[in-house]
């Protein structure tokens, strides 16, 4: 979704600690500028202006920090309290994007919301371990997402040089969309799988292998599979593909 933006709104999206640091840095910056301007007879008037303006900038940075802090607390509260698909579907589309962002942030990713204007099908940009992942969110309760939307998303990934792509929805994908996503390494997460991932992954657990290129399809339920390591049995330590909906589905494939 496209969203409006401004300098202040961009500042309020920074970590609240950044706003506090910028507010504190206003004082030494103003002192240096005032000293420089007052030492020059031509620019002495600017020195007076700096003395008047710098407290305003400092207050704006502190206000942005406060908004960021409150926003983070609200997002965290929503993320922790909405663990079922029914509650997730009750969110607005803006809250749903923020919810998905909170999920990936909890998985250890750096999350950036797209700026104003047409977002090209990109709602979130994730970064982790040097990789860049694009995320698109669709808060559609009834309509199924078809292959056309997934194809458009793949084009946006290619244009932006993304290493991975994740398409998250509250509804369902068509079978052709699933086939296309699996063929091109686009991670598709529908409402049911999103609910399962939230329940299966405790808050703060950064081990979830949610983004993996070229994940195979489960031979039993056709869901995306994730790479796991056997902890017991005849081959402990060996890796295998397991269904992402385990234990509801116990489909497996060899790596």
Describe this structure as you would to a colleague.
The protein has eight helices and eight strands. The protein is α/β, with parallel strands linked by helices and about 260 residues long. It has three domains: about 5-80; about 85-210, Trna Endonuclease, Chain: A, domain 1 (3-Layer(aba) Sandwich), CATH 3.40.1350; about 215-255, no CATH class. The radius of gyration is 23 Å and the shape is elongated. It starts with 6 loop residues before the first helix and ends with a strand. Mean pLDDT is about 80; it is low at about 205-210.
Helicity, as a percent range: 40-55%
Q: Please, how many helices?
A: 8
Q: How many extended strands?
A: 8
CATH-derived topology of the largest domain:
Trna Endonuclease, Chain: A, domain 1
Contiguous uncertain segments of 5+ residues: 205-209
Domain tally: 3
Mean of all residue-level pLDDT scores: 80
The profile of the biggest β sheet is:
5 strands, mixed
What is the CATH class name of the largest domain? Alpha Beta
Provide the gyration radius in Å. Answer: 23 Å
State the CATH architecture of the largest domain. 3-Layer(aba) Sandwich
Q: Between the first and last Cα atoms, what is the distance in angstroms? A: 37 Å
Order of helices and strands: HHHHHEEEHEHEHEEE
* Adjacency order of strands in the biggest sheet: 1-2-3-4-5
Strand percentage: 15-25%
Q: What structural category arises from helix and sheet content?
A: alpha/beta
Which geometry do the CA atoms define? elongated
């Amino acid at each position: 979704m496209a969203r409006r933006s401004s300098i202040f709104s961009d500042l309020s999206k920074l970590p609240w600690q950044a706003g506090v640091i910028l507010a504190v840095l206003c004082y030494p910056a103003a002192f240096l500028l005032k000293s420089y301007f007052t030492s020059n007879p031509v620019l002495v008037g600017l020195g007076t202006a700096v003395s008047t303006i710098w407290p305003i900038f400092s207050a704006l940075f502190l206000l942005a920090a406060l908004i960021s802090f409150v926003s983070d607390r609200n997002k965290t509260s929503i993320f922790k309290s909405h663990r079922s698909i029914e509650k997730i579907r009750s969110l607005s589309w803006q809250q749903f994007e923020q919810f998905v962002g909170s999920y990936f942030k909890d998985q250890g990713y750096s999350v950036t919301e797209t700026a104003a204007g047409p977002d090209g099908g990109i709602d979130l940009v994730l970064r982790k371990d040097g990789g860049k992942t694009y995320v698109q969110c669709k808060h559609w309760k009834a309509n199924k997402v078809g292959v056309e939307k997934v194809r458009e998303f793949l084009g946006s990934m290619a244009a932006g040089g993304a290493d991975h792509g994740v398409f998250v929805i509250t509804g369902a994908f068509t079978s052709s969309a699933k086939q296309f996503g699996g063929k091109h390494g686009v991670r598709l997460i529908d409402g049911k799988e999103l609910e399962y991932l939230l329940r299966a992954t405790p808050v703060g657990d950064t081990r979830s292998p949610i983004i993996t290129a070229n994940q195979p399809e489960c031979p039993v339920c056709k869901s995306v599979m994730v790479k796991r390591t056997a902890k017991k049995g005849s081959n402990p330590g060996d890796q295998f593909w397991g269904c992402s909906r385990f234990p509801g589905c116990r489909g497996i494939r060899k790596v």
